[in-house]
Amino acid sequence: MANPRITPLEYALAYLAQQTAPLVFRPPGIPKPAQPVGPPDIVQVPTRHGPVRCFVYRPHPSAPLAGPGAPPLHIDIHGGGFVLRNTAEDAHICRFLASDVGCAVLAIDYHTAPQVLFPVAEQECIDVLQWVIDHADQQGWDGDRVSVGGASAGGKLSMNLAQYAHEAGIGLRAAVLSYAVADCTRTGRTSPKANPIISPTLQKFSARMYFVDPASHADPIASPYYDDELPAKMPPTLIQTGDLDTLGPEMIEVADRLRAAGVDVVHTGYPTDHAFNTQGDRSIMDASIREIAAFLSERLS
């Protein structure tokens, strides 16, 4: 599908970034899992846009929630500004949850811009969620104990899954939103930091790559921030923000809205910039991922 708003050079730069990111990124292995877990199974999940590759991490049998019976499932959605496509970015998190929580973890390798445009990624993730519920017995996880979570763009897509689950009558147990984006109309966010990771230039580039029609930016699916019923649709939610992240303020606003509506919400601000679950200060990475594990352990039990 063509995107008339981007130039051939921009398309080439996005494609180069997509190809380079998996080569240069190495999962940090922090926190270290208590028990080893095997390599993920690869499954092709049918969606309205064709098959989507997903990686399934099976829990260690001695982990707290691994049994008896079918374990719960956590759906992980990686970030990347709707452009980068690198499931390895979250591999260390997926392994830790499978090892130390005992849930199965399914990581979605959804398609990204500029090869696809809004709302393809949203619809692919929604179709994967429905498949997860419909095939729970076949896949060996508990379809009544499912959580969703992701970082940055993946956090936004996780909110989309909560929106869909509410309409479809699917009772999600929890959502994890790490340095997520909620309002895609904002492309001029600033930070106390001189050169934040998500700069205004990068904000505009991401929006231009994935959202063709500027009018779509305020759609409640493109920007869950504008969903007036969002608090009614969110399950118990962990929101992690960076104090120096340009995306932080809008997610603090979302946390306040959820809390005011009586949602079980936990908000933690970390003294750092964006992407702290995958890079940067190792102590913050360790603390933030362990917080995710503790939150899910309680809500998926």
Cα-to-Cα separation, first versus last residue = 43 Å
Low-confidence stretches: none
Mean pLDDT across residues: 95
CATH topology: Rossmann fold
Structural class: alpha/beta
The profile of the biggest β sheet is: 8 strands, mixed
What percent strand? 5-15%
* Shape, principal axes of CA atoms: globular
With helices defined by DSSP (H or I, 4 residues minimum), what is the helix count? 9
What order do the helices and strands follow? HEEEHEHHEHEHHEHEH
CATH architecture descriptor: 3-Layer(aba) Sandwich
Per CATH, the class reads Alpha Beta
Task: Report strand order across the widest sheet.
Answer: 1-2-4-3-5-6-7-8
Q: What's the domain count?
A: 1
> Over all CA atoms, what is the radius of gyration?
18 Å
CATH superfamily, by name, is Alpha/Beta hydrolase fold, catalytic domain
Give your account of this protein's structure:
The protein has 301 residues and is an alpha/beta fold. The protein has a single domain, classed as Rossmann fold. 36% of the residues lie in helices and 15% in strands. The protein has an 8-stranded mixed beta sheet with strand order 1-2-4-3-5-6-7-8, sandwiched between helices. Helix 2 (91-101) crosses helix 9 and helix 3 (120-134) packs across helix 5. The longest helix is centred in the last third of the chain and has 18 residues, at 282-299. It is globular and about 55 Å long. The relative contact order is 0.14. The mean pLDDT is 95. GO terms for molecular function: hydrolase activity. InterPro entries: AB_hydrolase_3, AB_hydrolase_fold, GDXG_lipolytic_enzyme. Residues 76-275 form the Alpha/beta hydrolase fold-3 domain.
